[in-house]
Amino acid sequence: MKSHHDIPFCExxxxxxxxxxxxxxxxxxxxxxxxxxxxxxxxxxxxxxxGNRPTGVYCVSKGIIKLYKTGIEGKEQIIRFAxxxxxxxxxxxxxxxxxxxxxxxxEETNLCFIPSEAWLDxxxxxxxxxxxxxxxxxxxxxxxxxxxxxIAQKNVRExxxxxxxxxxxxxxxxxxxxxxxxxxxxxxANITGTATESAIRLLSEFKEDKIIALxxxxxxxxxxxxxxxxxxxx
Length: 234
Prior knowledge:
alpha+beta, Jelly Rolls, Arc Repressor Mutant, subunit A, 2 domains, 6-stranded antiparallel beta sheet
């Protein structure tokens, strides 16, 4: 569903100097504004499916998207989350491969879509932009490697504690100290790599130990040092 009132101009995103588009020229920015399309997506919508071939790159202007792989019996393994300022789908365009994950909206999202032709033109014509994309991809790869190591070497309790710290650091806290991302218990289990029942039990244990507070999907970290110790992070 298009929402013309909420269409962001590329200049607004580029004004953030940490943005990967910061090295684009004014002409390149104007071309992006002309070629991109922007759409509003509700929670639960699928942006693209694993195994399909994306036709362009998506920039998250607002909201949160989860990227996951589907395993045995349809069980999800959440790989990462994309939030405001992130891009998704770009690796499939670079490698000319099918999408290796499914992208699903978990918080109402505004997405800007850049067709693959326009994206590749930028990579070919702007060396600084290409270098920034390479650094961005390497950073994602490093995080994925750390995640795989944790899944292999840490027990479920340690992994869940580390996930809660990651969510707090990545999304921040609201004025009441609540982590600013709303996840179901199943989604928490999927990113932790465990059964939903195990995630529910461990969250209850953390609550009883006064490490966290729970109010529906809202999670507040009460004792970050104990959570770090539980996660085996020093």
